Inverse folding.
């Protein structure tokens, strides 16, 4: 399964190589040409039937993770977070360190040795460390030099009612949708952009969008889903199993209202389950793309992911399917729709 | 059952002072059993002879209470707890000593904040002018139970000491209506449960049973803002999975579940996160005793107004009866 | 199988206290090639005996507990989330973003997610999560989940076994499967040895809760001496030297009122004679192990405690150095070779 293959790869922001190579191997033959730009985005081009419209699809290849920032005398590794990670989830988790894919664990002080006040306290990442089984500083430096990237160690697993648990669903789901979309042909020029460094500030998309200067852009994402106990309903944002999520507004982007409505109608007309994201938190590449050049009509279609930015992100297979179907259906609709020839 | 319950809940029997309650229970059961004995810890052990499995049924007859530790010049009594006594539920309550003397519990007036409410800030007033007068009625070391009248409303019954006299009532009821069985049944009314499962330890050693079931009360999950528990008043017996003192043996637990299901007895499963019960001590006796629990859902545990459901009690009798009749090991 | 293969196999067994039956039977399977007799008793202790050759053979009991920290399901809500009660001491802080397996009618994977930081209620922000607030996401809705899972079902941490750098490995339940692997290694070392004393190996149950397994087994078997093998805290940055030992430098041998001084001294002697590294740990009272119960079981049993250093105890990433299992096994097998007379002398104070 494509998502399994994609989430098994490690691609912490700034180190997207593994993911990039895999995606290139998948899209060669599906597009007319592709290039890797200076920062590392893949821009795949598919010419289409001669229409003038330029449509950009965007999904980011990178994932949150860590980077080696120091070594202790006894061979433990100090590390920093790459992207937004909740410190609370770190103690006692497994990680994969560096190109050699060394097994490591984030240490946790045994409960037996914690004072009462300590039990109430949350560990800060600056006080945490990773154990890779090195016995000395020298050994640790040799095995995991400064700047090595570290990813969560977590398998892709299907469970429950058509659910999937994996790391990096944000945004390998988007990458998978883009690869699928490239299997289809449209009237317009299609640019499928697999971007880098989204998690550290939407940086790859900025460069990609400038290169492409599209008329319309669809950002395919994994987005937050908080429909869990202890959270009030109005804070759910999205609901697992309720279909593709359309963003109205978030911290980085007020999506093009016409385009969002257009997508919603396409979904309804094609019997695809769709929901609006009902909070304004979070943000993604859409924010950068929308503000490129003369401005780009931009919208986001997302797969709801519980426990995003953790090793155990959870999504529904049905939601993924809805996003994939909606993306492709919308592109076909744009192909047919005269309103889209040459822009709005 | 209701009369028995009223009788046994109202008798005095703070842990370590179980003489009165033992006497009352003894009189209720003596003519129905083959043999009775009282061991060195004061446990009342009644036996129905049999040739097959030795089954120990335990209900503790002691109750929580207080012990007078100091009497001041003005005749006020300072006290300490016996068992799990909360200062919050104690405040404003009446306590009754074995000799019938009743006192009221008040807090030092300068106490401003409930957070500072400790037993040490409370005192008992028995309405005496001075120490001399007070000491004629209550001596340091005397114990008292909380006053809590017995009443029945609808299908629920409320009293002090439902923990665990309701369990005692279940055993008494069972003794009077014993099923035919070849198993040898030991009905044990244990002592000092509330101060650390102490009576059950020696009783179990004396018997060395093949298995044991405790009949005790348990917390419910059906009151406002309480912990998440499946157990509820009127939901039938709670079959023990674990409490803080032991893990019910899976074979016993499953057998009880089967018996309940087959015989139309409603039940819930009990996973108690605080508090323990007698099997914590019984289980590790000798070469080990597989244990389980048939628990009575009880609201307001360790308060003077503990509430149980009479229907639940009937079901507890039925389930216990089925167990001793059918258990084969 | 080698130590590391055994350890990997053992680590994946599930033995929540009170529910060790399946794991005990598998463990008995590993023991049976090395013993005269193996059985699983009513509390799911695995009891395995090797007869000694001596006419006045003494009984030496060697125990390592088989159970692991875990949970029981205490609630199931309509959305398919399960609540947990712990069995054994678990730091709820390590549970966020942790996977668990619910052992219902079928095994069900559960995910413990973290509520997004910005959605935490003001009173919970900055505070450690409490077990009572943790909900396990099963990917089912409540009705479906209840087909597979009931309140009272056991739950274990899910964690695969990883080999690490240089003889190290990490995974779940290395407390105390490292010691069970050690028992197997002792048996292997003694395979061709004619020892005078009867040896009783026990993989004991319910250590993490109430030490039930070893108390009842000791009462039944009445050994003359006992060696408890358990794990201890490996040195990590947060722990001072007084409470931790260094992985790779051999077993931690405890000294204190819980342990029999002559047995302890004998281990020191055996270590020196045979060039086996060991570390010393002073315990002023309760060692927090089965040794505490063993010492006062039945008529009283002289007891020694050897511990294998484990880092991050009671998490899903417990880490061990395989060398320590070897060192511990050598140490205990040397002890097991003592003659009945030698052992007898040690037992008087």
């Amino acid at each position: 399964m494509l998502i399994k293959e994609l989430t098994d790869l490690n691609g912490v922001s700034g180190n997207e190589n593994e993911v990039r190579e895999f995606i290139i191997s998948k899209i060669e033959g599906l597009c007319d040409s592709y290039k890797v730009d200076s920062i590392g985005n893949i821009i795949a081009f598919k010419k289409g039937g001669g229409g003038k419209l330029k449509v950009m699809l965007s999904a980011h290849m990178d994932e949150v993770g860590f980077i080696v920032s120091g070594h202790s005398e006894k061979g433990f590794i100090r590390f920093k977070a790459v992207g937004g990670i909740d410190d609370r989830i770190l103690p006692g988790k497994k990680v994969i360190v560096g190109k050699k894919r060394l097994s490591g664990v984030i240490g946790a002080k045994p409960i037996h040795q914690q004072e009462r006040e300590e039990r109430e306290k949350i560990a800060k990442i600056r006080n945490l460390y990773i154990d890779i089984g090195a016995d000395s500083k020298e050994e640790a430096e040799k095995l995991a030099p400064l700047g090595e990237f570290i990813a969560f160690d977590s398998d892709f697993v299907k469970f429950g009612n058509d659910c999937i648990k994996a790391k990096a669903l944000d945004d390998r789901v988007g990458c998978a949708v883009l690869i699928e979309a490239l299997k289809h042909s449209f009237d317009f020029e299609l640019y499928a952009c697999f971007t880098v460094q989204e998690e550290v500030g939407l940086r790859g998309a900025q460069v990609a969008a400038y290169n492409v200067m599209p008329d319309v852009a669809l950002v395919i994402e994994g987005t937050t889903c908080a429909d869990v106990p202890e959270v009030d309903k109005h804070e759910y944002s999205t609901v697992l199993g309720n279909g593709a999520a359309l963003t109205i507004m978030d911290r980085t982007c007020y999506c093009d209202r016409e385009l969002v409505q257009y997508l919603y109608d396409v979904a309804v007309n094609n019997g695809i389950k769709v929901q609006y994201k009902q909070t304004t938190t979070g943000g993604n590449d859409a924010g950068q793309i929308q503000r490129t050049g003369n401005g780009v009509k931009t919208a986001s279609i997302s797969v709801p992911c519980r426990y995003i930015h953790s090793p155990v992100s959870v999504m529904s297979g049905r939601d993924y399917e809805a996003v994939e179907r909606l993306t492709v259906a919308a592109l076909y609709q744009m192909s047919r729709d005269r309103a889209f020839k040459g822009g709005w | 059952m209701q009369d028995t319950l009223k009788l046994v809940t109202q008798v005095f029997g703070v842990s370590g002072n179980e003489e009165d309650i033992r006497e009352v229970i003894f009189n209720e059961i003596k003519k129905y059993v083959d043999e009775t004995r009282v061991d060195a810890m004061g446990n009342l052990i009644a036996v129905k002879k049999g040739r097959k499995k030795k089954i120990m049924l335990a209900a503790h007859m002691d109750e929580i209470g207080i012990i007078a530790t100091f009497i001041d010049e003005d005749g006020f009594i300072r006290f300490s707890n016996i068992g799990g006594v909360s200062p919050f539920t104690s405040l404003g309550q009446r306590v009754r000593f074995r000799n019938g003397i009743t006192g009221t519990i008040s807090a030092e007036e300068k106490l401003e904040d409930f957070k500072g409410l400790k037993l040490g800030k409370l005192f008992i007033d028995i309405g005496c002018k001075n120490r001399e007068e007070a000491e004629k009625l209550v001596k340091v070391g005397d114990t008292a139970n909380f006053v809590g009248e017995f009443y029945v409303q609808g299908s629920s019954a409320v009293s002090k000491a439902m923990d665990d006299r309701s369990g005692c009532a279940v055993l008494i009821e069972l003794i009077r209506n014993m099923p035919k069985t070849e198993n040898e049944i030991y009905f044990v009314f244990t002592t000092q449960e509330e101060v650390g499962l102490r009576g059950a330890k020696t009783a179990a050693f004396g018997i060395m049973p093949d298995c044991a079931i405790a009949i005790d009360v348990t917390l419910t999950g059906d009151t406002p803002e309480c912990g998440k528990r499946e157990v509820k008043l009127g939901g039938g017996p709670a079959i023990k999975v674990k409490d803080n003192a032991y893990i019910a043996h899976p074979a016993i637990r499953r057998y009880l579940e089967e018996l309940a299901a087959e015989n139309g007895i409603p039940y819930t499963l009990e996973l108690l996160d605080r508090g323990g019960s007698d099997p914590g001590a019984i289980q590790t006796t000798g070469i080990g005793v597989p244990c389980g629990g048939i628990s009575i859902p009880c609201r307001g545990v360790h308060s003077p107004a503990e509430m149980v459901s009479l229907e639940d009690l009937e079901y507890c009798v039925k389930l216990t009866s089925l167990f001793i009749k059918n258990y084969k090991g | 199988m080698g130590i590391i293969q055994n350890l990997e196999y053992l680590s994946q067994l599930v033995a929540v206290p009170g529910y060790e039956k399946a794991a005990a039977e598998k463990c008995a399977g590993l023991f049976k090639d090395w013993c005269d007799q193996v059985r699983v008793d009513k509390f799911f202790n695995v009891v395995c005996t090797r007869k000694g050759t001596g006419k006045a053979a003494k009984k030496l009991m060697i125990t390592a507990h088989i159970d692991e920290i875990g949970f029981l399901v205490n609630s199931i809500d309509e959305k398919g989330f399960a609540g947990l009660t712990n069995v054994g001491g678990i730091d709820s802080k390590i549970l966020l973003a942790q996977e668990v397996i619910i052992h219902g009618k079928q095994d069900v994977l559960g995910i413990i997610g973290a509520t997004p930081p910005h959605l935490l209620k003001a009173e919970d922000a900055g505070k450690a999560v409490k077990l009572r607030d943790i909900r396990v996401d099963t990917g089912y809705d409540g009705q479906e989940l209840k087909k597979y899972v009931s309140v009272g079902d056991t739950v274990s941490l899910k964690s695969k076994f990883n080999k690490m750098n240089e003889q190290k490995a990490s995974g779940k339940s290395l407390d105390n499967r490292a010691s069970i692997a050690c028992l197997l290694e002792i048996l292997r070392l003694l395979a061709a040895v004619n020892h005078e004393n009867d040896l009783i190996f026990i993989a004991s149950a319910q250590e993490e809760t109430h030490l039930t397994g070893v108390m009842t087994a000791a009462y039944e078997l009445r050994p003359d001496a006992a060696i408890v093998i358990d794990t201890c805290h490996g040195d990590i940055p947060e722990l001072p030297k007084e409470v931790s030992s260094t992985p790779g430098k051999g077993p931690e041998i405890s000294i204190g009122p819980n342990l029999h001084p002559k047995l302890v001294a004998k281990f020191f002697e055996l270590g020196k004679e045979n060039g086996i590294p060991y570390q010393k740990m002073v315990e002023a009272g309760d060692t927090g192990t089965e040794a505490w119960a063993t010492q006062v079981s039945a008529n009283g049993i002289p007891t020694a405690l050897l511990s294998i250093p484990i880092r991050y105890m009671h998490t899903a990433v417990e880490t061990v150095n395989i060398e320590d299992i070897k060192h511990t096994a050598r140490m205990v097998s040397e002890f097991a070779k003592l003659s009945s007379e030698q052992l007898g002398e040690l037992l008087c104070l």
